[in-house]
Each structure stands twice: as C-alpha cells, then as structure tokens.
Amino acid sequence: MSWQQTLNTTIHCAGVGLHSGRRVRMTLRPAPVDHGISFIRTDVPADRAVIAARWDLVADTRLCTLLKNEQGTTIGTIEHLMAALRGLGIDNAVVEVDAPELPIMDGSSAPFVFLIECAGIKQQDQPRRLIRVLKEVRVQDGDKIVSLSPAPVSSFRAEIVYENTALIRRQEGFLRLTDGAFKAEVADCRTFGFAHEVEAMRKAGLGLGGSLDNAIVIDGDRVMNPGGLRHADEFIRHKILDAVGDLYLAGGPILGHYQGLRPGHAMNNAILRALFADTTAWRREDAETWDSRAAVA
Fold first, then answer.
1. Which residue, 45, 220, 231, 268, has fewest beta-carbon neighbours within 10 Å?
2. Active site residues
3. What mean pLDDT value characterizes the chain?
4. Which domain holds residue 198?
5. Does one domain contain both 169 and 80?
6. Annotated binding-site members for Zn(2+)
7. What NCBIfam families does the database record attribute to this sequence (predicted)?
C-alpha cells in the first residue's frame, strides 16, 4: 500500500515576490489525511483567507498560475512549490503566506525541495488517492497542444519552439516521475524570459522582484546571467517542472502520460478542465502498491 504523506514539522522561509517586489514570508505546515494542499493568506481576514489548491480555482494564467477563492482572495506564483510538493510526494500540507504571491526564491523548485527535506516527510495512516487517466484527452489552441493519456506511471514529455533565439530553437524533454527523478532532473531549472519582455513588464508595474538571481534572462542569442545555464536544456526542463506543478492542482497525483507542444500555464489548466469534464476519462483509486521504480509519490 502507498500511504499519504505530510511534513514532519513546520518550516519557514522568506523571499521576494516576483511581481510585487516586496518581501514575502511563507510557512509550510503539516496537515491531516485527506486535507490536500491549501494556502492561507495571513494578511487578510480569516473568513476569506483559505484557498484550496484546485484546478477549478485557477483564475489567471498569463504570468503565473493564480488561484482565487469564492471570497475573491488570490494567491499567485504557486507552480514551483506545487511541483516540489508533487515531486517529493507530499499529499497534505498547509501553506501560509503574508502576500498575494509566493516568494520566487531562485526561480526554480530547488529551494522548496530543500525546505521540504529539512522539515522531513511523515507517512500517514491512509492510502494515497490517485487519479487514473482512462482514455486520451486533448486540448489545442492554435499551435499549442496538450494531451493526457493512459499510462502505468506518471510521465511528462514536452517540446518548445523559440525560433527567435539560437539558444533554444527547438527543445524536447521527458520526465518519468520515478523515485528521486524530480529532484535530480528538473527541480533546479529556473523560469526564463526575454530582455524585451522584462522591460515591458516593469513598465506595466509587473516583474518588480525579477532579477538575474531568480530568472534566466535571454537577450538575443545570449544568456545575461553571469553563471550561464544550469543545464543546456534548462528551458524545456523548466516547462516540464511547471507542468508537474500545474497538474498537481488535480487534487492528487495523476497516473497517466502528459504530452505538451508549446505548453504553458493556460494549456495545463485547460487539460485538467477537459479531463474532469469527461467522467469516462478518469477515476479515483487508492494507490494499492508502492513501486519505487514507478513512482506515484
């Protein structure tokens, strides 16, 4: 039997908000079985502070994945933390934050992986609940295509195309969420953008916390970051990281294969909406067995 997991203890961190530029304090807390992942905004009244990590609460995907509850409270830039929670097999946790967005940290999931590992992982006494994909579901928006199809494990394949820079052109990547693969293969891969986009965002009052310390910035055919890239294909690895985080808004691990051509936050949410709109395309089930080679953690 594969059991639900939570954090062993509470842990805190602080960092800058990517879009606000303000200091953000965040706390990760253990949660009981079947709680799932939830966010609590500590800077708003308690009666409108709780936001469940759910696909149907996604309200904006233009610059990040942003959730909004029935009271209108929002929390944004959640995808890198969600990816770390999924990658390390955390089913239940409470995330407290004193701002409308999570800290961007270094632009990857690695700092969140470190926090979770420092807090420790505690096995709980109820089986993990999976979402098994039963048939292929596909969404398309112009040249962007994302699909989910049946598979015995959780796996991700994606392709991006940026003809305007020789740094990327076309990159493909694959991740099979086996034991330890998330941390080893994609967790340290940072978000990226182009220099002209950064300038436009700042003129619009966005991206005020962005810097070369928390994002890869591309100017023509060069990387502006003094340290360069962490991986030659860091761009596609980060897109897969985003997909892992966005799909964890399903409310549990998805047992199936994700395929994305030019994917992004909007397409990732669209595929979840398409999946759950078709009750014949999925089912919930207990994770009966644990296989470290075919991780459902």
1. 45
2. 265
3. 94
4. 130-286
5. no
6. 80, 238, 242
7. lpxC
